[in-house]
Amino acid sequence: MDDNDDMKPNQPGREPQAGSAAEAFARLVARVAEMEERLEGRMAMMTRALEHIAVEKQSLDVPDYNPTLGRINGNIAEFAKQMKAIKESEALKMTPESMAERIMAAAEAAREADRIAIRDARELHRQAIAAMNRGVGTVRTREQQQWHILYAIGGAILAVSLLWLIYPGWAASLGPQNWHWPERVARRTMGEPTLWDAGIRMMRVGNPEGWQAIVDAAEMRQANRDAIAACEEVAAKAKEMVRCTVRVETPQS
Fold first, then answer.
1. Which Pfam families does this one have (predicted)?
2. Residue 120 within any structural domain of the chain
3. What domain range includes position 145?
């Protein structure tokens, strides 16, 4: 028998069955319980689905478009700036008449620059010629100065030579005394090999008696060198003058 038939009111001509209301209520309770189970299963499935969606959304890596958008904005700004410069350019505002005037002005400026360059080149050429002329004159002047210097050197050499012939020792006396230039000049003039020989010759010629006395004294000391040495030792010990006996040979006639 159908459930709907159980819930229908008693129809005419039929007798009500015993316990039909309790059975209908029991079936209703069972159906409600079944529906609750199905609803709980669907709710659990929806909960798991929502949790899965939340997890996937958290793990999803969304790219950062800020740098790309920044570059795009920069390019757009640069393009806008260039378009503004093109819009404000004088070339777009130029008319055929103004272009002709500008061409004429540029040509005039170019011709003026050429005139200035030609004038400067002429001035440089003139200065170069003047410098060459001055250089030629300077060379001639230097040659004359060199000849004058040579003449002066020759005259000085001639004057020194004449002065040397007249007074040979004047140049030697100009040097320091420890260089002995006068003595060396005298030795070379006399033709002696050493300064000692030159001095002997000069003393012998200048004062023969004095030179002979020097020779005799030297010979006497040489002959009495032992006695003189002993006397010198005694005088050194006594620190005073002492008598000393020497032998003198008879001079040869």
1. DUF6118
2. yes
3. 95-155
